[in-house]
Amino acid sequence: MANTNIRRIKTTDLVLEDKLVAIQRVTKVTKGGRHFSFAAIVVVGNSNGIVGYGLGKAGEVTSAISKGSEDAKKNLVKVPVFKGTIPHEQEAKFGGAKVFIKPAAPGTGVKAGGAMRAVLESAGIHDVIAKSKGSSNPHNLVKATVAALLELRDAYTVAQLRGISMKKVFNG
After folding, report:
1. pTM of the entire predicted model
2. Which CATH class is domain 80-163?
3. 17, 30, 108, 120: most buried by Cβ count inside 10 Å?
4. Which one of 3.30.160.20, 1.10.10.10, 3.20.20.190, 3.10.310.30 gives the CATH number of domain 17-77?
5. Mean pLDDT for the chain overall
């Protein structure tokens, strides 16, 4: 199910923290020899529900990371964080990567692997259980995790969409 209401965020007055997810050395073999370049996947977030990811490619590692960071700042989205965790379970898929995220009790921590951990921590989610299935490609895992976070809905949004009170959402 594709989420049509993507919540884009402006970067003005936000303090964002960068996290390097993966860096890859890419080799192009030509008639004159080998040409090396680098590709970096970077996740940025404010640890308060805003997260974004980007890809940077350059001849040097530092340039690739800074380009990835700038790209990530252009693709920020808002995700619902409820008491340090997520409102409900969610599955998502991107390419060959499938992810499953589930809310956890306070004090559990972020139980997730590399690429997913970076996205969840940057979003400000402190207690969550996550599992990745299928491909372990960090590009697709980051994109699948962000897709899962975008499909999350908090109780207030559900109440507005259904036109009912918050008490009725919780069967009260």
Report:
1. 0.86
2. alpha beta
3. 120
4. 3.30.160.20
5. 88
